[in-house]
Each structure stands twice: as structure tokens, then as C-alpha cells.
């Protein structure tokens, strides 16, 4: 246990070097350790000996800088409402065994956060940490602190509403007749910090979410840093990973700074079948600076990276099979081979980015559904393609499926089809030529 906490503490020191004068009194609390175990927990003491049963049951107890350790199990939140909202800076660490002495978050000890689609359950983000509205006793906004989410699997599949309950196409409207919620139009892990707050999302998996923005969304404000590292985002709408800014000034020294490293973002869908927005593996707001390194960004319905004006350094990223572009800057669409020549917001030191076909080891059942989908306005999509490695047979080949001579004949009602945790995880266990996420391990 102490070794695991030590690893976390090293990271606190690495990204949490917020100067003391920028951490307000409210966020200077030392914090305590909480323990949560679906299988062995009860009550609200939240100690290692008597853990709570669900994070949702202890939300009202949390104070700034508390550390929550989550054991293996499936978590639905309090009353199975399917969403946990926290309004102070905390650290959430998942993937423990029931004794809290071992961690294996993508293997033997998965901490899976999900919910149900019962009518009038919450449709807000599954993990929603927002500290930007907290205030000191004098009325000024609280600043500083560190927020970390590490080793959590978010699966929104059970929270979605699917057409005719076939798990092939989501629906965004509720059905009062059948007492079903709409599919939540929110991300899996959404974090909004305060000024001078450092934020990290590491070793997490987010899948089956249907937001208009980020499945993993991190919004950093003035003087803060964001780290998004070794995560798997798979089968979501909107943007697989979304780096956001809360700074609106013109002083470049105050711009939020991001490190986006060793992530895999695959199969990111547009907002809906005929939408012209969403569908990017990775997206950036303007007014931020980011280093983007060793990521695999593949099979975005629209593209690999959508940059709305951030200053980016792109190093050794892999682009694979994106729909209409590998990189989009405002309205300019580019293949990976053209980025260094044509991009206005990419630094000259960027290098080593490439496009190639890759084999993705997802389950054959889901692969056949995805490869057999029919897109509306397909001729428009095909006419806009500017990147290589696209097309129906190329797509089938990346799953190892047999090639087809004619058009596929599956039902066109396929949009964000459900993928299970067991089907999705193999896609994130090994990087391609050192690019993308890998299985998180601890001694």
C-alpha cells in the first residue's frame, strides 16, 4: 500500500509544484485518505478497514486534497444515479484489490464506473470534478490545488438508450413511454479546474460516451498545467480527448500548458449520423500550449486532431484511418504529411509524425458491426477524404476481417454500437511502434 501511495506522491510533486502564494486557504487543506470497495464496503467511515460501498455515498464528506482509493468492482454511484460530481480538488485512484495492497486497473482489479438508463437518472458526466466556482470566506474564488484521476474505467454503455434495445444505435431523446433516459450527452471524465490548479488524467479508459465535446475533457485555467497520459478513449462521440482552456487573456505567460502523451484514441464518432461536428480523436481550444507526443489517433469519423488555435508541438504521433483529415486547423484540413509544411499553429520543432495502417485487436463481433456500418451522405464524406488508409476494405483489414468485393449489407441503423470492456481493452494494451497507451503496471 505504501509503495502505491508513494508512486502517487511522486506524481503530486511532479505536476503539483503550484507556488504556495497561489494556493488559497480553502484549497490548502491537508486532506485525508478515503477507501471505497463495492465488494466489501458499507457505511460512510471510508477507512481502509471499513471502506464505503460507493464513491457516490461519501461525496458530501469530501474536502480539498482528499485522496480516494477505489477497489475493484462496478460502481453505479449513490442510488444508481450514474454520475459523481465533486466540487473540490481531489485525487481518485482506482484499480486496487479489496485489500488495497495491489493495483491492476486494466486487468484483475478493474474499477468500472457506469450506471443505468432508468428514467430520470442523471445524464451529467460520469466523473465530474469542478472547482472553478469555489470561494474563500472573503468571496474571492479559491485557487491552486491538484486534481488527479488515475486508473478508472468509465463505461457509459449501460447509461445509453439504444434503438429497439439492440445496442447498435444510440438515441439522444428520452422515451417516457418505456421509462428510458436519453443517452447522456456528456463525457466520461470531465474536469474543470481553478486558476493555478494542476490536473492529471492517467491510466484511464473511457468508452461508449456520447458527448458533443470531450469523452476525456480537461479544462485548465491561468497558471495551471494539464497532463493526459496513458489513457484509452474508444468508441465515443465528440472528441476522444479534449484539452480546454479557461484563460481568456492575451498574456502568453499565463496560458495553460498541457502534456498529452502516450494515449490511444480510437473510433470517435460525429455527434450524430449527419452532423458536421465532432468525430475527432483529439481536440484543442485556443489560448493554450500543448506538447502532443507518442499518441495513436485513429479512425476519427472526421479526423485525428482538431486544433482551434492552440500552439502545439507534435512529436512522434501516429495517425491511422481518419475519415477526412489527420489534422485540422480552424478550417484547413491536412494529411499528416502536410502538417509541418502548412500548419500555422504547430511549432517548427515538431517531427516524427506518421500515418499508417494498424491492426486493432478488438473483438470480432464489434469489429464486424463497425466495419459494416453505412454512413449517411457517404458520397459527400468520400469526396472530402484527404488522408490515406481509408475505405471499406482497408477498414476491414485492420480488424483482420475478410475483404469484400461489394458493398456491405448490414443495417444502416448503426451509430456508436455498444462495445464491452472485455472487447475494448485489448486495443489499449500494446502501443504501435511505441505510440499509444499500454497496460499500466505497478510493482
Automatic annotation (TrEMBL):
Keywords: Signal. It comes from Croceitalea dokdonensis DOKDO 023. InterPro entries: Pectin_lyas_fold (IPR012334), Pectin_lyase_fold/virulence (IPR011050). Residues 1-20 form the signal peptide. This is Right handed beta helix domain-containing protein.
Amino acid at each position: 500500500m505504501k509503495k502505491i501511495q508513494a508512486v502517487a506522491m511522486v506524481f503530486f510533486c511532479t505536476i503539483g509544484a503550484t507556488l504556495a502564494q497561489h494556493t488559497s486557504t480553502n484549497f490548502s487543506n491537508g486532506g485525508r485518505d478515503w477507501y471505497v470497495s463495492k465488494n466489501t464496503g458499507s457505511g460512510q467511515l471510508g477507512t481502509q478497514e471499513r471502506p464505503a460501498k460507493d464513491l457516490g455515498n461519501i461525496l458530501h464528506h469530501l474536502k480539498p486534497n482528499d485522496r480516494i482509493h477505489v477497489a475493484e468492482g462496478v460502481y453505479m454511484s449513490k442510488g444508481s444515479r450514474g454520475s459523481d460530481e465533486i466540487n473540490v480538488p481531489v485525487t481518485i485512484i482506482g484499480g486496487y484489490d479489496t485489500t488495497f495492497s495491489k493495483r491492476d486497473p486494466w486487468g484483475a482489479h478493474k474499477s468500472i464506473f457506469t450506471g443505468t438508463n432508468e428514467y430520470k437518472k442523471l445524464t451529467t458526466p460520469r466523473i465530474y470534478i469542478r472547482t472553478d466556482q469555489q470561494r474563500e470566506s472573503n468571496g474571492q474564488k479559491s485557487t491552486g490545488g491538484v486534481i488527479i484521476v488515475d486508473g478508472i474505467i468509465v463505461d457509459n454503455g449501460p447509461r445509453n438508450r439504444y434503438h429497439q434495445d439492440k445496442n447498435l444505435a444510440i438515441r439522444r431523446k428520452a422515451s417516457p413511454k418505456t421509462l428510458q433516459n436519453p443517452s447522456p450527452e456528456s463525457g466520461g471524465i470531465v474536469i474543470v479546474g481553478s486558476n493555478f490548479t494542476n490536473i492529471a488524467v492517467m491510466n484511464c479508459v473511457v468508452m461508449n460516451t456520447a458527448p458533443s465535446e470531450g469523452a476525456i475533457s480537461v479544462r485548465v485555467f491561468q497558471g495551471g498545467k494539464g497532463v493526459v497520459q496513458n489513457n484509452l478513449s474508444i468508441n465515443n462521440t465528440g472528441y476522444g480527448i479534449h484539452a480546454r482552456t479557461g484563460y481568456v487573456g492575451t498574456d502568453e505567460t499565463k496560458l495553460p500548458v498541457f502534456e498529452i502523451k502516450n494515449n490511444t484514441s480510437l473510433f470517435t464518432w460525429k455527434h450524430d449520423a449527419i452532423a458536421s461536428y465532432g468525430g475527432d480523436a483529439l481536440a484543442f481550444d485556443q489560448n493554450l500550449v500543448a506538447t502532443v507526443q507518442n499518441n495513436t489517433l485513429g479512425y476519427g469519423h472526421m479526423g485525428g486532431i482538431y486544433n482551434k488555435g492552440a500552439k502545439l508541438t507534435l512529436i512522434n504521433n501516429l495517425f491511422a484511418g481518419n475519415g477526412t483529415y489527420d489534422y485540422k486547423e480552424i478550417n484547413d484540413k491536412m494529411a499528416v504529411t502536410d502538417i509541418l509544411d502548412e500548419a500555422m499553429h504547430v511549432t517548427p520543432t515538431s517531427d516524427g509524425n506518421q500515418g499508417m495502417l494498424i491492426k486493432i485487436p478488438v473483438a470480432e463481433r464489434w469489429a464486424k458491426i463497425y466495419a459494416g456500418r453505412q454512413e449517411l451522405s457517404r458520397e459527400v464524406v468520400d469526396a472530402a477524404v484527404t488522408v490515406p488508409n481509408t475505405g471499406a476494405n482497408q477498414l476491414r483489414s485492420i480488424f483482420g476481417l475478410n475483404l469484400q468485393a461489394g458493398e456491405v449489407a448490414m443495417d444502416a441503423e448503426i451509430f456508436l454500437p455498444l462495445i464491452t470492456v472485455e472487447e475494448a481493452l485489448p486495443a489499449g494494451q500494446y502501443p504501435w511502434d511505441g505510440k499509444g497507451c499500454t497496460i499500466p503496471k505497478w510493482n
